[in-house]
Every structure is written in structure tokens, then in C-alpha cells.
Predict the 3D structure of the following.
Amino acid sequence: MVASEGFNKRLKLVAKLRKKYQADIVRDLKKTRSAVSDWFNGNIVPHERNIQMLADYFKCSFDWLAFNEGEMFPDDPAPSGEEKGLLDRFKKLEQAHSALHEEYVVVQKENRTLREQIESLEREVQTLKDQISSLLGENQKCGTSSGCGHDVVFPEGVGGAPTKITAAHSQPPGTK
């Protein structure tokens, strides 16, 4: 059985409500500072026996702490005004975080799609530049001193439509 996502947030909340610090937990439950820090930072989810120990220590529901199910303090008649305010704020923040995360995932997918489209367009532009360079190289000796205006038509063009480009170039230096 593994605790649900957000365990560390619930741990921080119940610790704040019970006015306990990580150092208190280390001392009172005889746990290492690094383990408690990892629990609070979300790096590690404690084993079930440690979650039960924390629930007993904070006098909160194991199911709430581990899985965000049920009430935080089912045995308490009613939370204090400060506790209720913090609980309400926590629930709103958790909902806002969830919504923002979903939006972030959508934006990341859109960014990936746009990057792929940009890369495709950049490859297409490079292909066109290569074709123009090749055509200009073949027509380098046009015989005029003022340059020329050859019409170059790319049958595939941009987006599949034929594209006409007027290529202007001059003779290489020293040729007439």
C-alpha cells in the first residue's frame, strides 16, 4: 500500500496545525533528520508503519494522511477557526494546483507540437534555399553585366502549391 500523491503537503499541513517542526518529529519519533526532511520535501513516501506512527503522533486519521480520504481529525469535535481556515485554504490550493498542472500538461503538448511544426518549416526553408542556390549556381554566367531576373518556379513550392521566385544575381567578379 503506497500513500497517494500530495502526502508531503498533508504532512506539512498537519505539522503546522499541531505546531510541530521537523526537529520535533526527529526527536520525538527517533527518526533521522534526512528521512524526515525527505518526507516533508516529497522525495520519499514513508513506509506504512511510519505513516501510522505519524498519524498517531499528530492524532490524525491514517487514511487522510496516507490517501487524502476521510477527515483529518475524525475524533475532534470540530476544528478551531484557524484549523478550519487552513483546511479550507489547503483544499483550494490543492484544487488550484491540480488545475494548473492539467493546464501545464496541455501547454507542454502544444509547445511540443509547435516546435515540431517550426522544425518542419525550417527544413522546408532550407530545402528551398538549397534549390535556389543550386539554380543560381547553374545560371551564374548569364552574359549581362547588370544582373538578370530569371524566373525560378518550384513545382512543389511551399505547402504543396507551385511557387515562383524571381532570382536576381550578378556575374562573378571579373567576367563580362
